[in-house]
Write a structure and sequence with these properties.
The chain has 281 residues and is of the alpha+beta class. It has one domain (30-258): Jelly Rolls, CATH 2.60.120. It is 20% helix and 31% strand. The protein is built from three helices and 17 strands. It has a nine-stranded antiparallel sheet, with no helix packed on it. Strands 1, 5, 6, 8, 13, 14, 15 and 17 form an eight-stranded antiparallel sheet that branches. β5 (74-80) and β6 form a beta hairpin. α1 packs antiparallel against α3 (259-280). The chain is globular.
Length: 281
């Protein structure tokens, strides 16, 4: 009986390990993003892994670039489910995005990130803030710590709301999908597939003009992102709920480790080691 139990436990561990390392079949995100950046494609670096450009895969030519060596994020391997991530240092690194990304007041922004901020300041993932549209700009980011909250423009969690933020992000230092959805009748933010917060009125009119920036608050010298970015997808239209879920699940399956599989592996290994200790006693 002991031999059968040991074999069974070993089999559980091997199956869990296979699941953890098996390639995941990935569906496509919703159609027609106007910006599509994913860290496993189109990233150009120098010999020190400093990122000079990140090619837009949407076909819209909104490539993200950085010519200043002191402002380049660094590409790190094996950050997002075995895939690389661009690391932003919270003080100098950012990327400039070519062209005007958004033209519609209905839009969705998805980002795969880790948030490792260690202060209570603002941290922006994607923004078109300038001195002339300071309260009407578009941005998606976080602020505070313990708990970390979300700001999706100044009209939702930002200055118009007294900088209170919305929602609470769980385990922000681990990879997750953060999304903000601006629809014609409402606005909402999500962590992975979970709703963090919503409002039954739309955003007030946003100034959508360029420039767009990744990793800080537009053309300001403040609010730099602290953490890794694995993907950014932007849609210049109102997504259906099914399309939002489809895009989120695509990003989760590709970039976010599956905790249940890791837990299965850990449980199997623990049980096997415990069995072997009892057997040798």
């Amino acid at each position: 009986m002991k031999k059968i139990t040991s074999i069974a436990l070993t089999t559980i561990c091997l199956q869990a390990w296979s699941l953890l390392n098996a390639p995941t079949a990935q569906a496509a995100p919703a159609a027609n993003p106007v910006l599509r950046l994913e860290s496993d494609s189109g990233v150009a670096t120098d010999a020190f892994n400093n990122v000079s450009s990140w090619t837009d895969q949407s076909g819209s030519s909104h490539d993200a670039t950085q010519g200043d060596p002191a402002a380049k994020p660094i590409l790190f391997s094996n950050v997002f489910n075995g895939l690389p991530g661009l690391r932003f240092d919270g003080s100098t690194s950012f990327l400039n995005v070519a062209g005007t990304v958004l033209t519609s007041q209905q839009f969705s922004i998805f980002a795969v990130v880790t948030d490792t901020g260690t202060d209570f300041g603002f941290r922006e993932i994607f923004s078109n803030w300038t001195g002339t549209n300071s309260v009407t700009s578009v941005f998606l980011g976080t602020f505070l710590m313990d708990p970390v909250k979300v700001r999706f423009t100044d009209n939702y969690g930002g200055d118009d709301d007294g900088q209170t933020g919305v929602g609470i992000i769980s385990t922000p230092a681990s990879p997750f999908v953060l999304s903000g959805v601006s629809n014609s009748a409402d606005v909402a933010v999500y962590q992975n597939e979970d709703l963090l917060d919503s409002r039954n009125t739309p955003l007030t009119t946003r100034d959508l003009t360029a420039p767009y920036v990744i990793g800080k608050q537009g053309d300001s010298i403040f609010e730099f992102w602290t953490g890794d970015i694995g993907a950014i997808l932007v849609y210049d239209r109102e997504l259906t709920n099914a399309e939002r879920i489809q895009t989120t699940q695509y990003l989760e399956s590709k970039f976010v480790p599956e905790p249940s599989t890791a837990a299965m592996l850990a449980l199997g290994l623990t049980a096997l080691l415990s069995f072997r200790r009892r057997r040798s006693a």
